[in-house]
């Protein structure tokens, strides 16, 4: 009954909102809510009950924007972890509410609170603090200074903040999880005021989730780096990313773990409507006296039939993330995926992460109703990069230890339908099936996994 009550309440809120998609002059909602700009939003002519909250003038120089999100997702699992003993149905729910105070043209304070929870989860891992539940806490909370100096824009933030760069393959808030990722520290964005390039510098620590206590920074880990983007916009190259990231253990003499990632990405079009996206990274460092040397490389091609009704597209790609071919030799060759949005790239079941994996994938999709209804299907073919290393899941945990035998992990099929109900509400329905391969059969229970989900979200 609790699942039904929450879904019905959220559904009523979604359908009660005006049935309109994004409009000219109305800023779009962003995955990082603090990146939205409501400074020029008109006070009159709005079409939503919530629009007057987006810019409330408190004085000539001070105004505040209020926003939030409510989301509920029902998940149904069969043979979770390839084990027929693991079957469950449960509800994940969360709510965010933020205030964005602006003091003149240069200073702001962004404060966001969060509540997340779920009904009883009987799968392995139970109720997972890091991903599922946090019964009220401060989320994004920072002060910001924003100045233009000699044609360059400087944005400095100090406090608790989400990080998101590029295609989110190494750094992402991980919106799919009930608890998004958060970091505490400082960041500086330096950019061309014309929007041609930007460089992001940050020094942070991950925030550890405790569902019953105030969340605190992990004082034993430091995550820092520089992430640069240049928009080229010539005939074949639209943009280039380059980044250097460092994940270091600190304050604990018993742990020696220093990992450095150097990566880059390039994207654009070979010809009209045929887009490409290629990203690679190399890791070095020292882990408890062992030398680290690892890499990842991935690429995608997508062709959109732009002149055809429904705007269908076809895509294909491949990727590899190194594993350790000799785990006992004192060297480490397993790529560390850091803080990714692996869910979007390696299957919705999350049985596979970007560590010791090779993936060939294809996608097909279309918009039967323009900008409102999208249908999509993806298929992944997975192999271990090295059979002596483990299979790692989307969170970096070990699913199965390496056997030294067959590398075939299996095939995953993902199908989903997205309905943008209106400017505030969306409904996502999906089904995924994982066909267990020979490696899974060799290493333990090998039942195929079924995953069904329905997600309803409301944003204002």
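-> sequence recovered:
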């Amino acid at each position: 009954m609790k699942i039904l009550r929450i879904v019905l309440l959220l559904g009523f809120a979604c359908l009660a909102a005006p049935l309109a998609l994004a409009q000219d002059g109305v800023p779009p909602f962003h995955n990082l809510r603090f990146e939205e700009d409501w400074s020029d939003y008109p006070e009159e002519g709005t079409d939503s009950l919530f629009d007057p909250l987006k810019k409330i003038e408190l004085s000539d120089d001070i105004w505040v924007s209020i926003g939030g999100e409510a989301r509920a997702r029902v998940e149904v699992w069969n043979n979770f972890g390839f084990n027929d003993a693991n079957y469950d149905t449960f509800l994940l729910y969360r709510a965010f509410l933020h205030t964005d105070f602006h003091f003149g043209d240069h200073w702001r304070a962004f404060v966001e609170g969060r509540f997340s929870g779920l009904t009883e989860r009987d799968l392995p891992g139970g109720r997972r603090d890091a991903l599922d539940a946090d019964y009220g806490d401060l989320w994004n909370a920072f002060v910001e200074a924003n100045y233009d100096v000699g044609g360059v824009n400087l944005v400095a933030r100090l406090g608790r903040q989400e990080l998101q760069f590029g295609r989110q393959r190494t750094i992402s808030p991980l919106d799919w999880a009930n608890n998004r990722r958060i970091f505490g520290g400082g960041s500086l964005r330096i950019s061309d005021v014309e929007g041609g390039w930007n460089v992001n510098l940050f020094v942070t620590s991950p925030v550890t989730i405790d569902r019953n206590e105030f969340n605190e920074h992990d004082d034993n880990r430091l995550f820092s780096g520089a992430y640069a983007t240049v928009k080229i916009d010539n005939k074949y190259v639209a943009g280039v990313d380059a980044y250097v990231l460092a994940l270091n253990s600190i304050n604990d003499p018993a742990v020696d773990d220093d990992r450095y990632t150097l990566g880059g990405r390039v994207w654009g079009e070979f010809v009209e409507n045929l887009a490409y996206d290629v990203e690679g990274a190399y890791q070095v460092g020292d882990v408890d006296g062992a030398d680290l040397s690892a890499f990842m490389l991935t690429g995608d091609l997508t062709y959109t039939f732009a002149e055809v009704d429904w705007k269908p597209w076809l895509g294909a790609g491949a990727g590899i993330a190194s594993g350790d071919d000799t785990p006992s030799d004192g060297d480490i060759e397993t790529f560390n995926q850091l803080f990714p949005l692996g869910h979007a790239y390696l299957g919705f079941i999350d049985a596979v992460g970007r560590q010791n994996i090779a993936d060939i994938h294809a996608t097909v999709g279309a918009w039967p109703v323009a900008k409102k209804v999208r249908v999509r299907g993806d298929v992944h073919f997975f192999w271990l990069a090295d059979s002596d290393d483990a299979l790692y899941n989307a969170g970096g945990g070990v699913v199965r230890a390496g056997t030294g035998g067959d590398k075939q992990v299996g095939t995953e099929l993902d199908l989903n339908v997205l309905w943008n109900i209106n400017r505030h509400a969306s409904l996502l329905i999906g089904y995924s099936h994982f066909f267990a391969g020979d490696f899974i059969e060799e290493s333990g229970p090998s039942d195929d996994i079924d995953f069904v989900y329905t997600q309803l979200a409301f944003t204002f």
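The longest helix spans residues 2-16.
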